[in-house]
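Reopening this ticket.

The earlier resolution said the output was attached, but the attachment link was broken on my side. Pasting everything inline this time so it's all in one place.
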Amino acid sequence: MAHRKAQGSVKNLSDARPKYLGVKLYSGQPAKSGSILVRQRGTKILAGQNVRVGNDHTLYAIRSGIVKFTKKNKTGFDGQTKKRKVVNVSAS
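Inline output:
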């Protein structure tokens, strides 16, 4: 007989906080200067007119206006073209 109970390893005890990523203001909504439009990891959505990219790839408005999402053809280094989403803020 064993004198101690066998200890099992625990695999799911670390609990990370949610990052709350995604689109914060949708097309047609008004945006103030400095308001966050998209929180993302990497540049899935590109910055367009009156939009800048933060250190963590967050897209934010630099002027007040209406948010608009468009698509743009981008050519890669290998010559392939892909459609990429672009977020713009048109001055109202």
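Reporter confirms the inline version is readable. The chain has one domain: 22-91. Residues 22-91 form a domain with the OB fold (Dihydrolipoamide Acetyltransferase, E2P) fold (CATH 2.40.50.100).
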